[in-house]
Design goal:
The chain is of the alpha/beta class. It is built from 22 helices and 20 strands. The strands form three sheets. It has a twelve-stranded mixed β-sheet with strand order 1-2-3-20-16-15-9-10-14-13-11-12, with helices on both faces. Helix 3 runs antiparallel to helix 21, helix 5 (77-97) runs parallel beside helix 8 and helix 5 runs parallel beside helix 21 (555-570).
């Protein structure tokens, strides 16, 4: 019976690329840490040299105006500098001691070990204050390190085919696979952004490409991806994308997919990891502590900045606020979020299908009686309203060549909103979902846990906003809540997209999904400290930190991003002082 695998062609560019890299996979596992460190040091320098050009290309691709230039750094070079810099520091320790860096502290939480990996230096404390982060291991697992590197060496080398994402430009996948797991890589750029990642990756990874350990392909379309994954010399694969693309690759495209699923036969038989999306929540813990106007505005700004980042085309984009209907400041916070959405600069819709997805969600929400607020018109519509769904409008900036889709805020009960928790929106829509817990934090967290773990699509990143006073008053309940969350990245008092700034932690789905129901995927990126058996990252941000996401502010944000880039790449006194001056003192 067919499994929807295309026939492999005679000698092609793909064959030559795969053959060349495959022939070097054994050598890659035998290179010393010092030799691999040399590659990382070169990349550390190159990413800083090409950052301005990279950011400009990323913005041009998205149709962003000069006001939004800082976002070009954050979707590519800043994240690239961070993952290169953090693996570099690991390889410095490996070269000097033969072992990866160890955690600064370890504690036991039930049957699990939690490893404190952040802060790592005085520089981190200067910039991030009291923030701290832990890597939680799977229950019963000891904090061992380096198993992936050892397994690759024992296998005589492993070639990983990577299908790169089309919505952001940072090569976290490549660096993780090569330096964290010992693989050589052939990466296929996505057709959406190959004009950016093609030339930038070739410069960033020039020596790795020249030495045959990496190849970058720019062939477009699903057939090129399938041909690469089914190449006989490819040992394993990794993709970043969505469930539909994953299912077509793993189970076959078209009618054959249903047949293959019915008889439990995969079209793709190699090990295949995936970084997919989710209906990402922001959980707002209620309580008796009154949020000041500054606290309300700061957190509303952070939520909206995270929502609108990359034009809402991001796997970590917040999709819904989970709130207590009885929280006295519920309406005040929602009004602040609405105002921030209205004030946010127009974001061009660069990802295909954005407007259609938004219009479809608005129509469904109207049918279910949600309150629908068009943030541009500022008119709330009830289920009986005849108002048309918000349509795209041209930005006031003439430099934007793509239409800007207005964000929409929708409010309803959990029962009304259930369908919208079961799919990834991938567009500028934000739901406020209310459950009734009598303003009792313990009761609220007890009700929220099953909603988040079993009634929400995916398990990538869950953000939690909790006032410091409530953290103290309900410390035990909060610890149990965080421990029970089945999400791969849990961030307290910061927002999901910030998680990629810390590559010592893992980024990926909670390890519970299967190929039959993949949701947010399988496998992790990051993990620059090389720990075995990770389960999830838990990060505790600082309340009202100036490092939180915020709406774009023009030239000063560009200065911050340029200094962030060098800090992520090098750390050290000078980059820290310069970044602190820009972030904390606005100098």
């Amino acid at each position: 019976l067919p499994v929807s695998c295309p026939p492999h062609l005679a000698m092609t560019d793909l064959d030559r690329a795969v053959g060349r890299v495959s022939s070097r996979k054994g050598l890659w596992t035998r290179l010393s840490p010092a030799r691999k460190l040399a590659y990382l040091k070169e990349m550390q320098t190159v990413v800083c040299d090409i950052a301005d050009e990279w950011a400009a290309l990323s913005c041009k691709l998205r149709g962003y105006s000069e006001e939004l230039l800082s976002l070009g750094y954050l979707v590519g070079p800043c994240i690239a500098a961070g993952v290169v810099g953090d693996f570099l520091r690991t390889y410095e320790t490996l070269s000097a001691t033969g072992k990866p860096p160890r955690p600064s502290a370890t504690r036991v939480v039930g049957e699990q070990t939690a490893l404190q990996l952040f802060p790592t230096s005085f520089s981190d404390r200067v910039l991030f204050g009291s923030s701290r982060g832990e890597l939680w291991l799977q229950p019963g697992c000891a904090p061992t390190q380096g198993a992936d590197l050892a397994a690759a060496a024992a296998a005589g080398g492993v070639l990983c085919a990577i299908l790169a994402p089309g919505n952001y430009d940072a090569p976290v996948d490549i660096v993780t696979k090569m330096f964290g797991q010992g693989r050589v890589v052939v990466v296929k750029a996505h057709s959406n952004n190959k004009a950016v990642v093609g030339p930038m990756y070739r410069r960033l990874f020039a020596s790795l490409i020249a030495d045959g350990f990496l190849e970058v392909l720019e062939d477009s379309g699903a057939s090129a991806a399938t041909s690469l994954l089914h190449h006989p010399l490819v040992d394993e694969g990794l993709m970043t994308g969505g469930v539909t693309a994953y299912d077509a690759l793993v189970w076959g495209a078209g009618p054959v997919q249903s047949l293959n699923r019915a008889i439990h036969r995969r079209a793709l038989t190699i090990p295949f990891e995936s970084e997919l999306g989710a209906a990402s929540p922001v959980v707002i813990i209620p309580g008796s502590t009154h949020w000041t106007p500054e606290e309300v505005e700061h957190n509303a700004d952070a939520v909206v900045a995270a929502k609108m980042f990359n034009s809402a085309a991001l796997c970590a984009s917040p999709q819904f606020l989970l709130v207590d209907a009885d929280w006295p400041q519920r309406n005040e916070f929602c009004a602040a979020v609405l105002q921030k959405l209205r004030d946010h600069p127009p974001m061009p819709s660069f990802y295909a299908g954005t407007e259609d997805r938004l219009l479809n969600l608005v129509a469904q929400a109207r049918d279910r009686g949600l309150e629908i607020i068009d943030t541009a018109a500022g008119v709330a519509s009830s289920q009986s309203s005849k108002q048309e769904p918000p349509s795209s409008s041209s930005s006031s900036s003439s430099s934007m060549s793509k239409p800007a889709v207005r964000p929409v805020l929708m409010r309803g009960s959990l029962e009304q909103c259930r369908p919208f928790l079961k799919t990834e929106a991938f567009c500028p829509v934000l739901f406020e979902v209310a459950i009734s817990a009598k303003n009792d934090p313990t009761n609220f967290m007890a009700q929220a846990l099953p909603v988040l773990n079993t009634q929400t699509f995916g398990s990538l990143v869950c953000s939690v906003l909790c006032h410091p006073a409530e953290q103290i008053l309900h410390a035990g309940a909060l610890e149990a809540f965080l421990g029970g969350l089945q999400w791969g990245v849990v961030i307290v008092n910061d927002l999901g997209p910030s998680g990629v700034l810390f590559p010592m932690f893992v980024w990926g789905a909670f390890p519970k999904h299967t190929a039959e129901d993949i949701q947010s995927g399988q496998g992790f990126l990051g993990n620059s400290r090389l720990f075995d058996h990770p389960q999830k990252s838990v990060f505790f941000g600082e309340w009202l930190s100036r490092t939180h996401p915020h709406a774009p502010r023009g030239a000063h944000d560009v200065l911050v991003c340029r200094r962030l880039l060098r800090y992520m790449a090098f750390h050290g006194v000078v980059p820290t002082v310069k970044l602190a001056a820009a972030v904390l003192c606005k100098l």
